[in-house]
Amino acid sequence: MSATGPDAEGLRLMALEERARQLFSGRVEFLKSAPSLQFIPDPEEPEIAFAGRSNVGKSSLINAITGRKSIARASVTPGRTQELNWFEVGNPTSIRLVDMPGYGFAKAPPKVVEQWRRLVRDFLRGRTVLKRTLLLIDARHGVKPVDVEMMQMLDEAAVGYRLVLTKADKIKAEELAAVHAATEAVARKHIAAYPGVLVTSAEKRSGIAALRAAILEDAET
User: Fold this and answer.
1) Per the database record, which ranges form the EngB-type G domain (predicted)?
2) Does the pTM of the predicted model rise above 0.85?
3) Domain boundaries defined on the chain
4) φ, ψ for residue 204 (rounded to 5)?
5) For a 10 Å CB count at each end of the chain, is N or C smaller?
């Protein structure tokens, strides 16, 4: 087997996935919630943030990544939970995951929407240990205008992000391929977006190993 080229890259990715599997199969604990920046934890470890519209499957994906059933809990009323939630991974801690409040507030009052914008904008602009944001897109619907608004906010904050399709098992293969291609096309239009799009299903656990590896790679960058 060649020491360079595709074979070497394949071995690197396999090793990265295995290290990520071992990391996430170990200690994962909820750290704290922060309704405002004054309550956020000290910037001690590299952080990976999760963002997405309400009902995009963010909590389910975090649970799948960490191998836990309910470490991340979905809000009963979409758009109502306006807190940043931190989880520690590793012993000692090597990564912190940040669950950002969902957006797309169909039922939320304007005051709540503005509170969300202020909290998220200030967090993104001032968090030096934030290595990457994972912007989740529902594969059944593709990129929506509210997702583009979030991408613009990330672009303006100069925060690098990956687009991650969720609920990939809910649509047919040909439809998924079309959504994947369209999402990659959108990513290419945004300066802070990572060019590749990850495809996942928390229910079927497809794409989870690759996503774990991406999280570990980003955290170590």
Assistant:
1) 44-221
2) yes
3) 6-220
4) -90, -10
5) N
DSSP class of residue 44? -
> Using CA atoms, how far apart are residues 122 and 37, in angstroms rounded to an integer?
8
pLDDT on residue 115: 85
Beta bridge partners of 161: 133, 193
User: Could you tell me which CATH class the domain 6-220 is placed in?
Assistant: alpha beta
Q: Which residues of 180-211 are buried (b: 16+ CB within 10 A; e: fewer)?
A: beebeebbeebebbbeebbbbbbeeeebbbbb
* Cβ count near 92 (within 10 Å): 7
Helix (H) or strand (E) segment spanning residue 20: helix 6-24
Q: What is the pLDDT of residue 80?
A: 46
Helix (H) or strand (E) run with residue 57 in it: none
d(CA 218, CA 133): 10
State the virtual CA torsion across 2, 210, 193, 126 in degrees, nearest 10: -120
- Pull the structure tokens for residue 190: 């945004």
